[in-house]
Design a protein that fits this description.
Elements: H1 2-34, H2 36-39, E1 43-46, E2 49-53, H3 93-109, H4 120-123, E3 133-135, H5 136-150, H6 154-164, E4 165-166, E5 177-179, H7 180-188
Antiparallel strand pairs: 1-2, 3-5, 4-5
Helix pairs in contact: 5-6, 6-7
Length: 190
């Protein structure tokens, strides 16, 4: 019986060292060498200070900034420690009413006509509530508001949008999108 307990304790110790120390250390070293930006949170800086992560949405409310998708993460939204979706389905009356209100608000806020088509990502939250990207269509509809608030021409804002745009990998994987934090920081630099 002593041999079984001794072997079990030794196996526990070896597995603890392998899975609790050696493996995480190896993964950390490899990640830091091959993917240092991603391994450190994909952080973006403004004037030497961390402005945020390219992987997490922020609540931009000023007219000077492009706005992210809405968020259901946490009580006020955009809470990375409380990532979650609203869990409302497309037949939920509460969801339908909220999307209708958000669509109206989006049109008014961005100076669009009452019949303007609003992209889905402009009035719905992502599954995590923290998606940092918006569609190019959504961004283009916000461009006039941002340009007016910054005293810039629409063409200058669209040029920054084009410079920050990301396109599908190999032309088929993904969709045209823009990272809102990256775009807003680019505009702040102009």
């Amino acid at each position: 019986m002593d041999t079984i307990i001794k072997n079990a304790v030794m196996l526990f110790g070896v597995l603890t060292l392998c899975t609790g120390a050696a493996y995480p250390l190896a993964v950390t070293v490899v990640a830091q060498q091959l993917f240092p930006v991603q391994a450190n949170g994909s952080l973006l800086e403004k004037n030497g200070q961390v402005a945020g992560s390219m992987e997490l949405a922020q609540d931009f409310t000023s007219d000077r900034y492009f706005h992210c998708r809405s968020s259901a993460a946490g009580d006020g939204g955009y809470d990375a420690a409380n990532s979650a979706a609203s869990n409302f389905g497309p037949t939920s009356r509460q969801f339908i009413d909220r999307v209708a209100q958000d669509t109206l608000r989006y049109r008014v806020y961005n100076g669009l006509s009452a019949d303007a088509v609003v992209p889905a990502d402009a009035v719905t939250a992502s599954g995590s509530g923290l998606d940092p990207d918006i569609s190019l269509e959504n961004a283009r509809l916000q461009a006039n508001r941002v340009a007016a608030a910054r005293g810039m021409s629409r063409e200058m804002v669209l040029a920054a949008l084009d410079a920050c745009s990301e396109h599908p990998v190999l032309g088929i994987l993904g969709e045209d999108k823009v990272n809102v934090l990256r775009l807003n920081l680019a505009l702040d630099g102009k």
